[in-house]
Amino acid sequence: MNKLILTFAVGSLLLYSCGNSTNEKLSNQPEIAEHNDHHHDDESEAIELNNGEKWQVDANMLTHIRNMENDVVSFAKVEQKDYKSLSEKLQSNIDLLTSNCTMKGKAHDELHKWLLPYIDLVKELSEAKNETEATKQFENIQISFTTFNQYFQ
């Protein structure tokens, strides 16, 4: 239940921040309410391709995603694993990504199907109680980037 509430809260925050600068917040309130009614809280929502092609992610957003992916790839190669430090770096890029959300439409919706479960994985990594748990969450994050690269460019 707590995971569902947390996912909904994060999703609402993400949707609120997407495409809304401080000057636009008041004029876009009906759109925000509409977004909040749309659930992104279940990993079972399958990501769809764009008519058989990968979705285009806006360049400024893709930068943060690639930074996270590079951190994950680099981390896999190091001997001493500092999972807490990695989770902090990933969360920092998530914060930058969500605060700079410029995408709209179907590509935006499909990206959220990947992003919300990914955010949960990073949170679970940060809360891992031991190295075995952290290793498993790290592996799940690696798989998440494989999924990202299947559907987005």
From TrEMBL:
PROSITE patterns: PROKAR_LIPOPROTEIN
Source organism, top-level taxon: Bacteria
Protein name (database record): Lipoprotein
Species this protein is from: Fluviicola taffensis (strain DSM 16823 / NCIMB 13979 / RW262)
